[in-house]
Every structure is written in C-alpha cells, then in structure tokens.
Amino acid sequence: MAVLPILHYPDPRLHKVASPVQTVDDSIRRLIDDMAETMYQAPGIGLAATQVDVHRRVIVVDVSEHGTALQAFVNPVILTRDGEAEREEGCLSVPGIYDKVTRAERITVQALDRHGESFTLEAEGLLATCIQHEMDHLLGKVFVEYLSQLKQTRIKSKLRKRARSTL
Ligand code: GNR
Ligand code: NI
Predict the structure, then answer these.
(1) 103-156: per-residue pLDDT in tens?
(2) Which of 44, 130, 155, 164 is most buried, judged by most C-beta within 10 A?
(3) CA within 13 Å, CB half, 165
(4) Where are the domains of the chain?
C-alpha cells in the first residue's frame, strides 16, 4: 500500500474526465487500497481517483466515526435522487476552504465492488453528499465550481499564493 500525492486546485488535471473501468483486476484493487490509505492518512471521508491523477471511475468513501467502514465504488452510477440538502463541504484538493453546497439529500447508487460484483446502495445525509462530491471529481468537477465566480477567483489566488510560498 502507498500514500499517493493529492492534486491541488487549480491544477488542470483535476478537470479531466475519468474513463470507466473495463475489468476490476488486481491493478484496480491496488488502486483502491492505495486510495484508502491516502484518504485515511489525509484524513478525509472520501477520495476520487482523479485526485491522485488516475483518470478511472473509482471512488472510496468512509464516513464512519472511527474510519472502519470503507466503501469502494467502481463505475458508480446514480439511479435515483430525492430532496435537497445544503451542507458545508471541504475537499482534500482545496485545502482549508469550506463552503455550503446544495445537493440531493437521498440517492441510490449502483456500482461494482472490489471483486467486480454489482451492488446498489441507498445513501442519505453526509454519505449521500460525499458520494456526489466524489462522483463530481470523476467528471472533472471540484465543489468550488458551485460557488460564485468571485469566490472561485479568490480561492484560486489564495491557493496559488500558498503553493508558491511552500515551494
Ligand atoms: O474529507 C472530505 N470531507 C468532506 C466534507 C464534506 C463534504 C465532502 C467531503 S469529501 C472530502 C474529501 C475529498 O476531497 N474528497 O474528494
Ligand atoms: Ni474532494
């Protein structure tokens, strides 16, 4: 297992669109394990392959209090969405920035697990928010893109400045 480097906004690679996984093989299982280790080490409650510069449709999520409920989703698809919920979000690719985003309150997701078996999950609350946030990453979308242009400009300049000062 390995902790992988996480891309930071406004890196253009965060806007690449991930391709579907053809076969859930050992290389995908290794990716899932490395993404889990990277997420727990950060620490975060979710991670999309896009954030570690791998442009395949793979996400990991663990919203449990003690980090004991890892869920991996390969080729996730949202089958149903219900209601709206506004929640404060953060992102490991946009460190130190938190803001409110409105998303579906309840979703049904279908995906493949680490063995290539299809499963369906009903999610609500923080788990639903997190899965939607991760699936946006696979489409090249970062949560700050839901904020006003003014906020996006300020966030970009703040993170560019920070990146320069830590070189
Ligand atoms: O660790 C994370 N916390 C979080 C909080 C609210 C909504 C979404 C998230 S996901 C984030 C980790 C991350 O950047 N995943 O892409
Ligand atoms: Ni994120």
Answers:
(1) 999 999 999 999 999 999 999 999 999 999 999 999 999 999 999 999 999 999
(2) 130
(3) 6
(4) 12-165
Pairing assessment for the beta strands 58-61 and 71-82 based on DSSP bridges:
antiparallel
Q: What is the pLDDT of residue 166?
A: 85
Residue 43: cis peptide before it, omega within 30 degrees of 0: yes
Which residue CA neighbors atom 6 of ligand 1 most closely?
A: 89
The predicted structure's pLDDT at residue 37: 98
Ligand 1 lined by 56 (C-beta under 6 Å):
no
For residue 137, which atom of ligand 1 is closest to its CA? Answer: 16
User: Burial letters for 117-139: b for 16+ Cβ neighbours within 10 Å, e otherwise?
Assistant: eeeebebeeebbbbbbbbbbbbe
The pLDDT of residue 167 is 74
In tens, the pLDDT along 131-142 reads 999 999 999 999
80 residue type, one letter: T
Taking a C-beta distance cutoff of 8 angstroms, is the pair 23, 58 a contact?
Answer: no
Task: Enter the tokens of residue 142.
Answer: 């970062």
**Residue 167 is which amino acid?**
L
Runs of H (alpha helix) within the chain = 26-41, 125-138, 149-165
Q: What is the model's pTM?
A: 0.98
Tokens 């392959």 correspond to 49
